[in-house]
Amino acid sequence: MDGFPREVVGAPTLLPGHQERANGDRGMKGSGSERGSTTFARFLSFIARHCFLFCSALIVALAPACSRPMAPPRPYLALAAVGKDHSVAVASLASFRVLRIIPLAYAPRRVVLRPGSREVYVTSADGILSIIRYPDLAVAATLRVPQGATGLTFSPAGDRAYGIGGGGIFVLDCNLRKITRCFPLHDHPSGIALTSDGKVLLAEDRAAGQLVFVNAADGQVLGKASAGKQPGSMVILPRGKKVFVADPEEETVAVLDIASRQLLSEIQVGGAPGLLALKPDGGELFVFSPQSSLATILNTSYNYVDQTVSTGTNPVAAVFTHDSSLLYIANEGDGTVTTLNVPTRQVVASIRVGIKPVALALTPDERFLAVADAGASSLAIMRARAPALITTIPVGDEPESVVVPDWIESPRSRASAQTTH
Asked: Are residues 49 and 137 in the same domain?
């Protein structure tokens, strides 16, 4: 239909448009002003009728799209280290249920994805490391490592992993699944990081307040540099030129040049720094303090404080989207996850997810956020781009760490959906 009035054959009465036409015809005998007024009224009626028809058609066309439900999540898998239950829980992010409980002989502390592989490494403080493979979702190997080696740093290719323990640095061959070298240090390293080119290891000696620079190939000590009174968290810029080290005792962040091993600056941040979160492009560093609800933003090119922004209470974990547009912050002190718009520095949302959120992981498509809640013994699942809590999945007593690899729930993993104890 074109929307124009049409004759109704045999109708006992006239449609409104035709009635106007009839009235207009009777008015032809009237004055010229009356005829002009009637014609203008008919014109307005015609325009109004067509606007109504157009808007009605537009509403009908758009209604299905507006009412269409959000597409279900891809069947990614979330793996959570559940400390008190001595297990790793595997949850489906399509069905929002636990597919499998993988039992362990120790209390896991962290789950870490090995780059370029389908393996997750599970670390502990008990000198035991387990490797879980996909799609079996079972322990493929268990290794003995130095006591207290909870943190691992992988080479860019994922063929080696470095850890702290036994008074030095150990090197794990990930293909052979065994420790092949140990680099003894006279210092007492407590943390470790690797430059993006995989050539230089940085080990923290908190007792001496310094960083130790080590050749990753042969373990040769390249030098040492002061990093404050009590060096804590550290991050290395993507191109490996500078390292930023938190010093809670002096309430500063030390900046060191890696090539020259020289201290460049000590930036006052107005609170004891704890968590450090580096933007993916390395341009800005977000410094969080457990003592306040503020984050200090540092310009990493020129080593100065750019701004402070609000967060929640006691932030303990943070993750950026790949394009650095959003930052998600887990606040252990108030049970919330804060979403920060990075370019505008505005808080988009503060969502209460439970009791004690301690770890975060975005799905590879960045549509959903998994939150390990140690207080509620669950994984909270949030919608990421328009932040909202979707559901919680019970996973066991005190989950401490979570990863979401780019693995898709497979027939084999579904076949093993029955819980294993």
From this structure: no
pLDDT band at 326 (very low <50, low <70, confident <90, very high): very high
The stretch 281-287 carries a mean pLDDT of 97
- What pTM does this model have? 0.81
The CA-CA-CA angle for residues 25, 27, 28, to 5°, reads: 70
Q: Would you say residue 40 has pLDDT above 90? A: no
Do 174 and 136 reside in the same domain of the chain?
yes
**Vertex 332, ends 328 and 333: CA angle to 5°?**
120
Angle in degrees, 0-180, between the axes of helices 32-67 and 16-26, rounded to the nearest 10: 170
Spatial CA neighbour of 125 closest among 102, 151, 160? 151
Does 49 share its domain with 112? no
Residue ranges making up the domain that contains 24: 16-57
The domain that holds 312 is classified in CATH as: 2.130.10.10
% of residues, the chain, pLDDT over 70: 80
Q: Are residues 184 and 139 in the same domain?
A: yes
Task: Report yes or no: 278 and 292 within 8 Å, Cβ to Cβ.
Answer: no
